[in-house]
Design brief:
There is one protein chain. The chain is an alpha+beta fold. About 55% of the residues lie in helices and about 15% in strands. α1 crosses α3, α7 packs across α9 and α8 crosses α9. The longest helix is centred in the N-terminal third of the chain and has 25 residues. The N and C termini lie far apart (about 50 Å).
């Protein structure tokens, strides 16, 4: 009984760390909690006296559990069909606000890109770059060499960081315009939106993003500014973040880190000239998304 109590106490001391690893691996609090629970079950069935470094052992086990869960997931296309485009999914037993706080803490843009990595890439990057786990340890989890684990982390890092297709000054200007647009939209500031929109801006909305009734193409800054403010009053835009979209600055809407829509922006003379609103899962999959570094 005393040994069980000690084991429970030690596990609880590590629970927060294990949950943080699992959430970054899985992008879902409910699945992360399942992974942590499975880790406890495996610990309770093990001979703890043979475990030299309990913290390291638990990290290895929860990582293997998460890797199995990632590998067993159905295709992204099937996952996307479970949720109506534009409507954030709610998972049974998960507090949406808690999920939002966790996603904000990790970084919505990072969560979006992590979800696009292969399971082994995701594990190698998260364990090494976020939790400072050695490549030797990562290699033992993946069943590969340390060099192979290092290559996986490097490949993931490159995808996360992306490669801008425009010059640094242009990138800086695009980011400033995108941030000004977001600031105005969140404040419901009509004049602020007008200041960053080309008077003749053209907005094209794909079928998956369009709501019944509104036109699929909107022309003119006033028309879109009014519609954007009206939309933001009915739907939380907390999950909208600037990201690199095909090498240029765009906006990504990812409620609780789940990609929902992408706004591809084209700018002219420091203002937004065209916007393509994309929500079709197949089209989203084709976009190159990366985190905008400070």
């Amino acid at each position: 009984m005393e040994e069980h109590s000690w084991l429970t106490e030690q596990f609880e001391e590590n629970r927060g760390h294990l949950r943080a690893v699992a959430y970054r691996m899985l992008g879902s609090l409910s699945e992360a909690d399942d992974a942590v629970q499975e880790t406890w079950l495996r610990l309770s069935r093990s001979d703890a006296s043979q475990i030299g470094n309990l913290g390291g052992w638990l990290t290895t086990v929860v990582s293997r559990v998460c890797l199995d869960m990632l590998r067993s997931r159905t295709s992204r296309k099937e996952d996307a069909l479970e949720v109506e485009p534009g409507i954030p999914d709610t998972q049974a037993g998960t507090d949406p606000e808690q999920e939002t706080v966790m996603a904000d803490r990790v970084g919505l843009a990072l969560m979006v890109v992590l979800d696009r990595l292969a399971p082994a890439e995701r594990l190698a990057f998260i364990l090494h770059d976020v939790f400072a786990v050695s490549f030797d340890e990562i290699a033992s989890i993946l069943g590969r060499s340390a060099d192979a684990a290092r290559q996986l982390a490097t490949r993931a890092r490159r995808r996360i960081q992306g490669a801008p297709t425009i010059s640094r000054p242009d990138l800086t200007q695009q980011r400033e315009v995108a941030n000004a647009f977001l600031t105005a939209l969140r404040a419901g500031d009509f004049e602020g939106l007008m200041a960053v929109l080309d008077p003749d801006v053209v907005v094209r909305v794909d079928a998956a993003a369009a709501r019944p009734g509104p036109p699929r193409e909107i022309r003119g800054a006033q028309n879109w500014a009014k519609g954007a403010i009206a939309f933001s009053r009915h739907v939380s835009i907390r999950g909208v973040q600037p990201m690199l979209v095909d090498g240029e600055v765009g906006l990504v809407w990812a409620p609780r880190g789940r990609l929902s829509r992408v706004l591809r922006l084209s700018m002219k003379a420091g203002k937004i000239a065209t916007v393509n609103v994309i929500a079709d899962p197949a089209a989203l999959e084709q976009l190159e998304l990366a985190v905008l570094n400070d």
